[in-house]
Specification:
Helix 3 crosses helix 4. Helices cover about 80% and strands about 0% of the residues. It has one domain. By secondary structure, the protein is mainly alpha-helical. It is built from four helices and no strands.
């Protein structure tokens, strides 16, 4: 298990419980996940990331991209429905 796994599992649990477009738009990672990303970004700015931390940050960024795409799609769905 890696440090990124809890964030991954947060998203899986969110999706698995069933969602609405509104819930997708409103979804936010936990405070713990947000703090970890902030820590990694701060270390990256100082060129102090280990290889494992860089991989973890890359993983977070991929998840962030997927979440942004899902939120944009949810907004489109809501716009079409109104």
């Amino acid at each position: 298990m890696t440090a990124a796994d809890p964030v991954y599992l947060e998203l899986i649990d969110f999706i698995a419980t069933g969602t609405t477009p509104e819930q997708v738009i409103d979804f936010r990672p936990s405070a713990t996940a947000q703090e970890r990303v902030e820590d990694l970004i701060a270390k990256a700015k100082e060129d102090q990331l280990s290889a494992d931390e860089q991989a973890e940050l890359d993983y977070f960024l991929q998840l962030e991209h997927i979440l942004r795409m899902a939120k944009a799609r949810a907004a489109q769905i809501l716009a079409r429905a109104s």
